[in-house]
Every structure is written in structure tokens, then in C-alpha cells.
Amino acid sequence: MAGYSAWNEESARSIIASLAHLEGATLPMLHALQDEFGYVSPQAVPLIAEALNLSRAEVHGAITFYHDFRTAPPPGRVIKLCRAEACQSLGCEAVVAELEREHGITVDGAPVGDAVVETVYCLGNCALGPSALVDGELIGRVDAARIAGLCQHGKAHS
């Protein structure tokens, strides 16, 4: 997992402690942990609960309510495919259907190799939809073949 540290309880405790003073610190803590480790380890739940005097259920509820949080290490590549209205009008749902039918890739499903395709709603590239975000690069006018190639770790730009 390039760019992320391996899960480490001591580092997690330090991150949690550095944010415990904030009002509504749960979400900043979860984001900081995910930014550091690539996911929010279930081992962090009791640490956050203790630091904020919350129940474990309350912390777990925050993690599961917000779809952006992962509870397991992410795959090697996350491809975010926009499915908002503008991209829908430019064919993103046909891309989703073709990905599944022709390439066996289910959006918001299981990883394909070490890549996963996830739904997002608006990448701000509406005029050039359907759009995707791959390795931090915004790509316009994507089709199913391009997404499938990116799942095999093709270069995002080409």
C-alpha cells in the first residue's frame, strides 16, 4: 500500500490524542487515521471511544454511517467513478453496466485483482463526463474499456 503506514497502535494513539481537544473530534480522528493507515482499523474503535468517553457502538456507528471510511486496508488502486446527474446524462450508467457485463467488474463490489471501482457523486468535471479519479488524476470521457484497463494498473494518463 504505497503512501500509507502499516497499522501501529502507538501511532494511532498519538493521532487520537492530538485531536481529542477538538469539538466533535470523532470525524477528524477517523479521517486522520484513514489518511495515515489507509483505513480505520477495528482496533482503533476502543481507543477513540476511550479518548472521547463514547461507547464503542457510537464510534462504530460513525465509521459505518460515512461510506468514505474503510475498515480494512484498501486495494492497491481505487478508481472513483462519478455517477452524479451530469455524468449520468453522459452515459456513466452504461459504463457501469458494460463493466459488469463485459469485464466482470462490479462497481462498489469486490476488488478486481488489487483494484476496486467505487461510486462518487461529482468530481467537478461535469462537462467531460463520465469522469473518474485515478491515482489522484481526474480523467474525463472514460468508457468501460478504459476503466477495465486501469484496473489492470494501466497508466491513468494516455
From TrEMBL:
The keyword Mitochondrion does not apply. [2Fe-2S] cluster binds at C82, C87, C122, C126. InterPro entries: NADP_DH_HndA-like (IPR028431), NuoE-like (IPR002023), NuoE_N (IPR041921), Thioredoxin-like_sf (IPR036249). It holds the Pfam family 2Fe-2S_thioredx. Belongs to the complex I 24 kDa subunit family. Binds 1 [2Fe-2S] cluster. This is ATP synthase subunit E. GO terms for molecular function: 2 iron, 2 sulfur cluster binding; metal ion binding; oxidoreductase activity.
